[in-house]
């Protein structure tokens, strides 16, 4: 489901992309330092965005360096690491753990079972350290599983689970900015879930799986353009609410990177999927 919160590289300045990549590499470094190669395997763009968002808002002391790594063995690459790199690495692992458990529970995927067992011991201490976030992940995924099993929930009900999950993760501590961060996470989480649902609608309906857009799709059978337009309107409204909360934060540093992600990057996968969909439609005409 995750993987939509990325940059739109063609629309970025070179220096901004290098800065973004330094935070991405910094998060990867923290995952390896805290949890080894298993931790590195959980790395996501979504938590990279959160590192940069929290860095821009709270302006912590950030350690910057250049070094070799396994992924980039030839030349040195810049690393940017601060206290929020560690926080997001911990959230990354918690998400991976509960997501693996969820896949094992719902789909009996052995990969999910073994992945959860590998990182289980590492997550026990995180559950105690971050009870609010751990409870939000656990209850949101459990509620989503029930909704998807029932197959009759509304669009808002289903998407709200992922929204509630990210809302609590985005709040690293309760303070004057926590409610705006919570809302950014909430609307971004809903967008991620619904964008993924739109992308998978045909596959889900063929397999008889739950999809929040299934009812709408059935009502508009034969009118793909109208269906896509309606879904796009819903997705735009989610990102509009997310951007509204973001612009109210007093962020100066890293703001260009964050705006690239929120206004352009989140649409990269959507546009790629839409292009592929249109190409398939032309082939079948």
Question: Secondary-structure blueprint of this entry?
Answer:
Elements: H1 14-40, H2 45-58, E1 63-67, E2 77-81, H3 83-107, H4 110-129, H5 131-150, H6 155-170, H7 178-207, H8 214-219, H9 224-247, H10 255-263, H11 268-284
Antiparallel strand pairs: 1-2
Helix pairs in contact: 1-2, 1-3, 2-3, 2-10, 3-4, 3-5, 4-5, 5-6, 6-7, 7-9
Q: How many helical elements?
A: 11
Quaternary organisation = single chain
Instruction: Tell me the helix content.
Output: over 70%
Strand-residue proportion: under 5%
Kindly provide the radius of gyration, computed on alpha-carbon positions and rounded to a whole number of angstroms.
Answer: 19 Å
Low-pLDDT sequence parts: 110-115
User: How many domains comprise the coordinates?
Assistant: 1
Q: Features of this protein?
A:
285 residues; single chain; mainly alpha; two-stranded antiparallel sheet; Farnesyl Diphosphate Synthase; 2 strands; globular
Concise account of the structure shown:
With 285 residues, the protein is mostly helical. Helix content is 73%, strand content 4%.
Structure commentary:
- This protein has a two-stranded antiparallel ribbon.
- It has one domain: Farnesyl Diphosphate Synthase (Orthogonal Bundle), CATH 1.10.600.
- It has helices at 14-40, 45-58, 83-107, 110-129, 131-150, 155-170, 178-207, 214-219, 224-247, 255-263, 268-284; strands spanning 63-67, 77-81.
- Mean pLDDT is 88; it is low at 110-115.
- The protein is globular, with a radius of gyration of 19 Å.
- The chain contains 11 helices and 2 strands.
- 73% of the residues lie in helices and 4% in strands.
- The two termini are 31 Å apart.
- The protein is mainly alpha-helical and 285 residues long.
